[in-house]
Design brief:
Helices cover 36% and strands 30% of the residues. By secondary structure, it is of the alpha+beta class.
């Protein structure tokens, strides 16, 4: 199962972490893993290259697998950044809703 943790601050989401394999299909054929991975990469690309947010921190570990992204609350003040973040998080929630046995999302309150 892919476990996605969304860190929520006072002004909105400040991080997202996706960990694990969905187990929906064999590695290399798993459309659920591919969808989550694609969305996480799109979030990174959108924030770093399209919005040009300077405070994005990320960690990608293929062996775990793990994909972690974070940004500071100032990024949420940029309407384009907020749109990118909310679009990706909404898409991840939709995947979790469609594949509940394969993707789980938890929201964690952070300062």
């Amino acid at each position: 199962m892919i476990k996605i943790s969304i860190g929520i601050g006072k002004k909105g989401p400040l991080s997202v972490e996706a960990r694990g394999h969905s187990g929906y299909a064999q590695k290399g054929e798993d459309v659920v893993c591919a969808a989550v991975s694609t969305l996480m990469h799109a979030l990174l690309l959108g924030l770093k290259e399209v919005v040009e947010a300077k405070d994005v921190v990320f960690d990608i570990q293929d062996d775990v697998p793990l994909f972690f992204l974070s940004w500071n609350k100032g990024t949420l003040e940029d309407p384009k950044a907020k749109a990118v973040i909310e679009t990706v998080l909404g898409s991840l929630r939709s995947i979790a809703h469609s594949y509940p046995g394969y993707v789980q999302i938890v929201e964690v309150s952070i300062n």
